[in-house]
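Allow me, if you will, to draw on your knowledge of protein folds for a short while. I have a record of one protein: its chain in single-letter code and its fold written as discrete structure tokens. Could you please explain, in whatever detail you think fit, how the structure tokens follow from the sequence? The record follows directly beneath this note:
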Amino acid sequence: MQTGVAAVGSDGDGEQFAPVISSSSTLFSYSPPGTARYAALASSQQVSTTKPELETEGELKTLPAPVALPFRALTTMARSPGIVKVRSVWAHNLEKEVELINSLLSSFRFAAVDTEFPGTVHRPSVPAYTLTAKDKYALMRANVDELHLVQLGLTVFDADGRLPDLGTRGAVQFVWEFNFREFDLRSHRHAPESIEFLRSKGVDFDRTRQDGVDAAAFGTRLRKWLRGGLGRAGLVTFSGAYDLAYLVKMVYGGSYRLPGNAAVFERVVKAAVGKTLYDVKEIARHCPSDLRGGLECVAGKLDVRRAVGDAHQAGSDSLLTCQMFMRMRERYFDQDERTTVAGIRPC
């Protein structure tokens, strides 16, 4: 396996992207930078600088095969969140914010998550289409095992898409962004382009190292949240393999290493999270409209506008994922139909 750092490209809107990842089988595939094949793929696919897009075709073995979902005419629109503020969580206010979220879990039974991390440093030395399923999973495993989480975004919401207003009577609604201290820019491996990109989005790596949340302490709280109902009605991601892998890593502790194969990883995720999992990118595959693309691209096609913050800020991205999920389910799927696209989707 070859190691390297993320390469940065740009789409037509000027948004930066990292090395291209494509799909030709049921798990993960990654095209090497600096090749003609890479350039060809890059012209047609868009990938976040800090979060690789990992696509799948077909279901994992333990999940029911998806069915063709009939189009349902738009009868309701996803509720606009109005004024939203991001509650930034550090070591000094962790306990206060944890207790606050605890008090909300019974009323806000859905959760959307997003992670930001220092790019990817492991990539294959051969074209993506030649990789086996085992090799594809191994790439994600190698990156998650070696790299530390920088941010976790969390949006809790109810079945109508409402967010917590914390007593403001709807005037302001809130999402959360947790900043972690484990990543040390001076000594830990990272993709330099990803670091510069995160800095441009406001991440202060000196502050996260000094004032950030201890991941082990957060893992304890996360386990309690999951037992207490976090995402009881559904845990929502966008292209969520890395999100789920980092959640598992925090639940089981920083020294935990991901399982040796994807089938065991699926079982571990189910055991750790224990919820219905929705991947918005996978749900988009079952919609009658063309909803291909990365987070920003799909949001634009759904006419969903970012309510707060900027792309690749974890709190903002978790909220955008929530908004897209609500728009899709209200526009395209009846209640019974939504269950056919639920499940672990490492895509």
